[in-house]
Amino acid sequence: MIHRFTPNKVLLFFLGVCLTGTTAFSQDSLITVTAEKGDGILSLLRKQGVDPYDSFDDFVALNISNLRDSVHLYAGRRYIIPVAELDTVEVIPAIKKQATQIKKIEGKAFPIFGKKHEIVLSKSERLKGNVYYLVSGHGGPDPGAMAIYGGKPIAEDEYAYDITLRLAKELLAHGATVYIIIRDENDGIRDDRVLEIDRDEVAYPDKAIPLNQVARLKQRVQIVNELYRKNRGKYQRLIVTHIDSRSKGQNIDVFFYHHEKSKNGKKLAESIHKTFQEKYKKYQPNRSYSGTFEDRTSLYLVKKTHPAMTFIEVGNIRNKKDQRRILDPDNRQALAKWISEGILLDYED
């Protein structure tokens, strides 16, 4: 759960199928739709009534040869919608009656994700009992790196925060306890390219963020370390998300840093890095992945925080190529999902 938020329980109902057998995609019943201008994978799936986050990877796998950079749609082209169906079998009356019984799925509402995304449905309990601290870079009086896109200003802290919220939702779905350290109660997960800039972020639970950079970093370290002490004895990890701000001409892949003396931090960074390597190989086979994981103890949060941690740079906000990765909500969701898969790999390996 997200600490300090009492989730509102939401009951969702659906017709459960209790038949045994293999779920398969039927070639005769595949749904195809034409992408319109402005459509992304998430919006296209939502229009078809399909959960965009659960079906994202399946959609990419089914349409990989018809995507630009393995994640972008072409307007006017037709795409396969991943809808799983049961194989056709003869159903005896007793089984048919059981198959139409209504099952109850319990979701939880976390308002911090925003009205559109607040419901979290359980995917598993693979991370149950684990504690994760998520820190998005900058915030409050400090927007971080700035750039101009489409004539509008864009800021690092808004995009780092959006990715962090998406990651938090993924971890919660697997049973983890999640602390969002930098938080904005009215932003939520946003599916826009240009995220409006504000200055109302606070530090957990509701502390004003200092203007002074050193004071800001010290505040985050103190919050994380105090929570770490309270949760002593539990499996705890820290993930810090930033967006780089190098020269406009320099595009970068996703990088991961850890403390030079932390074996668990190195393993966490390595696990997420390995996941990204595999995803790039699968979804972007024509492009090499140059992101690395390495120790970088000179970073204040890497040096001072107690939990094993990784510090992630997801791209250069001033570079046009990297902007496509950062501004597209589909890409932000993919980044969060891949990071979460790396976290699962780290824990279960």
Fold and architecture overview:
The protein is an alpha/beta fold and 349 residues long. It has nine helices and 18 strands. The chain has helices at 41-47, 56-63, 93-99, 156-173, 213-230, 263-283, 300-304, 320-327, 329-348, and strands at residues 8-15, 23-24, 31-34, 78-81, 85-86, 102-109, 119-121, 131-136, 146-149, 152-155, 177-180, 182-183, 202-203, 207-208, 236-244, 255-258, 293-295, 308-316. The strands form six sheets. Strands 11-8-15-18-16-17 form a six-stranded mixed sheet, with helices on both faces. Strands 1-6-7 form a three-stranded antiparallel sheet. Strand 13 (202-203) and strand 14 (207-208) form a beta hairpin. Helix 4 (156-173) packs across helix 9 (329-348) and helix 6 (263-283) packs across helix 9. The longest helix is centred in the last third of the chain and has 21 residues, at 263-283. The protein is globular, with a radius of gyration of 21 Å.
Which short descriptors sum up this protein?
six-stranded mixed β-sheet, 349 residues, single chain, alpha/beta, three-stranded antiparallel β-sheet
